[in-house]
């Protein structure tokens, strides 16, 4: 239904082939985050788009379908231009895409992607692709950036309160977002973007995407976990039996299991059922039971649950002076968690005298859905055109909003004394251009593995 690349655009794009100056030969455009919620971006996701959409040729059947649809829709259609792509280029798009290495942490305001047509007769194609290309970049990059920002908050808390923060960090934020996003593809791209930063997630399609587009054999991991229906199915009087069943089914030495424990009374469940009635079974199982509160005010509930678990199961004080629960119990907070609230929760945990290693977090809609193109103010703009053999700068400079001023000329991105900067390509001297060709005329030029992307994101 949605495999026709010609129709992966906005309606008004279909008429733009008639709107450029006579003699236009090349249109060069770029994608950037102009600022927004965070000062940096973690660039990610372009390779997935290229593999899914640009390595398959456009066909005459695609042209026929698009022509009929646009005619009925009321906009022009450049059949001749698309036929030329099929006849002269085998259906593969005559464009070159340059991009920064995926996984790179980049200050906002820098070009992440640059695209131009390689066939002068296809000058109209660069901007025609804006809708699909910009969406392919802004969404996974924004989710990856949000996840990375949370990672920095958790890292700081771990470094302040934990003896071995590096070992704890990879599993501290778990993706709960599959059911909260707008589509299956969004779940795949967003969940995969999160896994650049962390190793835990329940979004199964993200694992498939990381395998298909980045060659990851297994990008993330999860554990057996209860939901409210599997607890409340036993009835309120059978709550203890429901928890005991979880232990019986999954409580093996060295394993983890998560049990939602607030279907009725989280404090009774922690102090009486887990802490007294089932304490011996928990301790003798050799497993770690991860208690999950799922209601209330997180920054109040989590410290209270930690206090009650410490009172019943004990623990130790680490070298930094913070309490660590017995290895048989931990806590995961997945309700009311977003990029803002997680900092508050971490602060309250530390103020209560507990190490951050006691707690993991799950994030759903706040991770994969509570973002939009304006979160990081993403835009794709034309910056240069070749007309009758001469290059000219193309830019917008609205007097009403300096934040929407666009860049001029063909662009390059350099690292100058450790600082990433976007400059004009014709201003390059000895510096290396970090914008590297990744696609040209139907050919994928760079094929990064998922581990390579992860390594770049950690090189900060």
Automatic annotation (TrEMBL):
Its EC number is 2.4.2.12. GO terms for molecular function: nicotinamide phosphoribosyltransferase activity. InterPro entries: Aldolase_TIM, DUF5598, N/Namide_PRibTrfase, Nicotinamide_PRibTrfase, Nicotinate_pribotase-like_C. SUPFAM superfamilies: Nicotinate/Quinolinate PRTase C-terminal domain-like. CDD domains: PBEF_like. It comes from the Bacteria. Diphosphate binds at residues 179, 228, 292. The keyword Transferase applies. GO terms for biological process: NAD+ biosynthetic process. Residues 4-97 form the Nicotinamide phosphoribosyltransferase N-terminal domain. It catalyses: beta-nicotinamide D-ribonucleotide + diphosphate = 5-phospho-alpha-D-ribose 1-diphosphate + nicotinamide + H(+). Pathway: Cofactor biosynthesis; NAD(+) biosynthesis; nicotinamide D-ribonucleotide from 5-phospho-alpha-D-ribose 1-diphosphate and nicotinamide: step 1/1. The keyword Isomerase does not apply. Residues 171-424 form the Nicotinate/nicotinamide phosphoribosyltransferase domain. It is an enzyme of class 2 (transferase). Keywords: Glycosyltransferase, Pyridine nucleotide biosynthesis, Transferase. Beta-nicotinamide D-ribonucleotide binds at residues 202, 292-294, 334-335, 365, 373. Belongs to the NAPRTase family. This is Nicotinamide phosphoribosyltransferase.
């Amino acid at each position: 239904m949605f495999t026709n690349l010609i129709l992966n655009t906005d309606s008004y794009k279909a008429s733009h082939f008639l709107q450029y100056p006579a003699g236009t030969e090349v249109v060069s455009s770029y994608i950037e985050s102009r600022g927004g919620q965070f000062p940096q971006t973690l660039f990610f996701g372009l390779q997935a788009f290229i593999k899914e959409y640009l390595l398959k040729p456009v066909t005459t059947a695609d042209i026929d379908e698009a022509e009929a649809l646009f005619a009925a829709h009321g906009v022009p259609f450049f059949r001749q231009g698309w036929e030329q792509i099929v006849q002269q280029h085998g259906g593969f798009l005559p464009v070159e895409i340059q991009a920064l290495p995926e996984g790179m942490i980049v200050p906002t305001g820098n070009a992440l992607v640059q695209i131009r047509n390689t066939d002068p007769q296809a000058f109209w194609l660069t901007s025609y692709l804006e809708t699909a290309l910009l969406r392919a970049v802004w969404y996974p990059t924004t989710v990856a950036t949000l996840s990375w920002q949370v990672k920095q908050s958790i890292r700081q808390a771990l470094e302040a309160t934990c003896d071995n923060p590096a070992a704890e960090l990879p599993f501290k934020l778990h993706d709960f977002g599959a059911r909260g996003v707008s589509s299956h593809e969004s779940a795949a791209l967003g969940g995969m973007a999160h896994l650049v930063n962390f190793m835990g997630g329940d979004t199964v399609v993200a694992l498939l995407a990381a395998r298909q587009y980045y060659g990851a054999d297994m990008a993330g991991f999860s554990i057996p976990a209860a939901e409210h229906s599997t607890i409340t199915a036993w009835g309120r009087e059978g709550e203890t039996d429901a928890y005991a069943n979880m232990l019986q089914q999954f409580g093996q030495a060295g394993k983890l299991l998560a049990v939602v424990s607030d279907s009725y009374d989280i404090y009774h469940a922690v102090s009486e059922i887990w802490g007294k009635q089932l304490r011996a079974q928990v301790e003798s199982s050799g497993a770690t039971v991860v208690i999950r509160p799922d209601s209330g005010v997180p920054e109040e509930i989590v410290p209270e649950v930690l206090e009650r678990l410490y009172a019943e199961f004990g623990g130790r004080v680490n070298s930094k002076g913070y309490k660590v629960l017995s290895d048989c119990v931990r806590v995961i907070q997945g309700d009311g968690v977003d990029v803002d609230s997680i900092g508050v929760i971490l602060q309250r945990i530390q103020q209560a005298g507990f190490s951050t290693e006691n707690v993991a977090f799950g994030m759903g809609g706040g991770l994969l859905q509570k973002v939009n193109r304006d979160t990081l103010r993403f835009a794709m703009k034309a910056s240069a055109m070749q007309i009758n053999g001469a290059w000219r700068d193309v830019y917008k400079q609205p007097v009403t909003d300096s934040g929407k001023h666009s860049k001029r000329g063909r662009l390059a991105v350099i690292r100058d004394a450790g600082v990433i900067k976007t400059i004009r390509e014709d201003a390059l001297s000895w510096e290396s251009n970090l914008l590297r060709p990744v696609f040209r005329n139907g050919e994928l030029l760079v094929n990064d593995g998922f581990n390579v992307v992860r390594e770049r994101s950690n090189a900060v």
